[in-house]
Amino acid sequence: MTKTALVTGGTRGIGHAISLGLQQAGFSVVATYHGNEDAAQKFRDETGCAAVKFDVADYAACEQAVQQIEKDHGPIEVLVNNAGITRDGMLHKMAKESWHEVIETNLTSCFNMCRLIVPGMRERSYGRIINISSINGQKGQFGQTNYSAAKAGMLGFTKALAMEVAAKGVTVNAICPGYIETDMTAGMKQEVLDSIIRQIPVTRMGKPDEIADLVCFLASPKAAFITGATIAANGGQYMV
Ligand code: NDP
Q1: Which residues pair with 220 in a beta bridge?
Q2: Residue 240 located in a structural domain
Q3: Residue of the nearest CA to atom 8 in ligand 1?
Q4: Residue 38 burial (CB < 10 Å; 0-12/13-18/19+)?
Q5: What's the pLDDT at 208?
Q6: How many structural domains comprise the chain?
Q7: Whose CA is nearest to atom 34 of ligand 1?
């Protein structure tokens, strides 16, 4: 039977590349999205995969969606927590809403999805969870106290959960992409991007496929001995 992989924010950007990669690897992929209907429909037409709309920050919405997805597509074997947003601003000017929105969408979403999906993985003694964090969760970033905190939080979450489920055949890993060419970075000023590229030893931004390939490996049975890891894919911009 085809195994099911769920990719949050899987209809655009890095998530889109991950969905395609997992589909090519033989998974039945379900992608989620939040509001961009055009991207979701394009994704459905292009892949034949399901795209399901709900807010990953809303526990009740996640619960309803996960139940329906497992009913329609079977147990979720691979979960990729990829959905994320930025709401940049310096702390002394940051609205409380920008803090909460970023923490809830990037970090609380990992709790929501894992809380709902991990019990089934434990029962079946197999699962793969991949959390998409960020270079800015590792090193901090000017104007991103909210985003850096959320992405750093994902790293602690990954390690703690990895310990809890390791003996049950479930691995949990985090990927920290550097700057990748997607809509998220397309919104940045060119001079800011140029100054970032000057800090990247490979002298370019990354491509969504370069993150997707790593996800596909971590999602495979071959990656059974990798868990609780934080894996950087940043062109050498930040070496820990
Ligand atoms: P995009 O902005 O291109 O896509 C974000 C995706 O997440 C979209 O599918 C969007 O849905 C979905 N999404 C956003 N908010 C919610 C929500 N509340 N509920 C459900 N889905 C939601 O982002 P990227 O592809 O650039 O980034 C993907 C991940 O990688 C993010 O976690 C990001 O923080 C991280 N990352 C990105 C880097 C980069 O340089 N691009 C660098 C490091 C990390 P919709 O299409 O409906 O809006």
Answers
A1: none
A2: no
A3: 9
A4: exposed
A5: 98
A6: 1
A7: 84
| Whether residue 234 has its Cβ less than 6 Å from ligand 1 | no
Q: Which atom of ligand 1 is nearest to the CA of 86?
A: 34
Question: Using a 6 Å cutoff on CB, does residue 180 contact ligand 1?
Answer: yes
Whether residue 81 contacts residue 131, with contact meaning beta carbons closer than 8 Å, is answered with yes
Residue 238 lies in a domain: no
Residue 85 covered by a domain: yes
Q: Could you read off the pLDDT of 174-215 as tens digits, one per residue? A: 999 999 999 989 989 999 999 999 999 999 999 999 999 999
CA 13 / ligand 1 centre spacing (Å): 7
Q: What is the pTM of this model?
A: 0.98
Q: How far is CA 73 from CA 6, 173, 190, 192, 199, in A?
A: 10, 24, 42, 43, 44
**Cβ(55) – ligand 1 distance below 6 Å:** yes
Structural domain boundaries enclosing 101: 4-180+208-233
Give the CATH number, domain containing residue 49.
Answer: 3.40.50.720
- With bands split at pLDDT 50, 70 and 90, how would you rate the model's confidence at 1? confident
